[in-house]
């Protein structure tokens, strides 16, 4: 027969989540392998395209207010 599980309060739940995230960050940062060549080339192409394209964000000028 299963017992009823007590709920964890939100403060402890956030603390547990933060600790898990921190440990994952540490673990994954040690385990970084280089990107495959084709993926790295595609990312470089995307960066180049972003640099060449105009911004779609309107400029905020003081005289518009």
What is the fold's blueprint, element by element?
Blueprint: H1 10-30, H2 37-52
Characteristic key phrases:
65 residues; 2 helices; 0% strand; flat; mainly alpha
Can you describe this structure?
- With 65 residues, this protein is mostly helical.
- 57% of the residues lie in helices and 0% in strands.
- The chain starts with 9 loop residues before the first helix and ends in a 13-residue tail after the last helix.
- The model has no long low-confidence stretch (mean pLDDT 82).
Question: What's the short story on this structure?
Answer:
With 65 residues, the chain is mainly α. The chain is built from two helices and no strands.
Average pLDDT across residues? 82
Spans with pLDDT under 50 lasting ≥5 residues? none
Estimate percent helicity.
Answer: 55-70%
Sheet/helix structural class = mainly alpha
Tell the overall outline: flat
């Amino acid at each position: 027969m299963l017992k009823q599980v007590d709920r964890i309060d939100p403060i402890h739940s956030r603390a547990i989540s933060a600790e898990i995230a921190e440990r994952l960050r540490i673990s994954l940062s040690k385990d970084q392998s280089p990107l495959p060549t084709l993926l790295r080339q595609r990312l470089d192409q995307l960066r180049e395209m972003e640099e060449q394209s105009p911004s779609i964000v309107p400029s905020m000028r003081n005289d518009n207010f």
